[in-house]
Amino acid sequence: MTEEAIMPYRSKSQQKKFHAMEERGEISAVEVHKWDEATKRQPGGFGALPERVKAKKGANRKRTKVKGKAKKGRKY
């Protein structure tokens, strides 16, 4: 059997979240250790992690179609 691929953390914020989830018992310590090891193996290790990762442009943005004319009283 192949072991599931573990990705390194993308930011320090994500690392903090995983360790908090471990303390609450939401994920196992073994899982957090795997993520820590994967991050250590990356060039720069933990020192290269940004504090936060910016969202991709357009992410979480809903697109809606405008039907008909604007409502009365609104000036567009």
Report the order of strands and helices. Answer: HH
Q: Which residue ranges are poorly predicted, with pLDDT under 50 across at least 5 consecutive positions?
A: none
Number of helices: 2
Average pLDDT metric: 81
Residues in helix, %: 25-40%
Rg is 21 Å
> What gap, in angstroms, lies between the N and C termini?
61 Å
Largest sheet: none
Spatial shape: elongated
Judged by helices, strands and strand pairing, the structural class is mainly alpha
| Beta-strand content bin | under 5%
Question: What is the tally of beta strands?
Answer: 0
Q: Overview of this structure, please?
A:
The protein is mostly helical. The chain has a domain at 1-43. It has 2 helices and no strands. It has helices at 12-24, 29-40. The protein is elongated. 1% of the residues are buried. The mean pLDDT is 81.
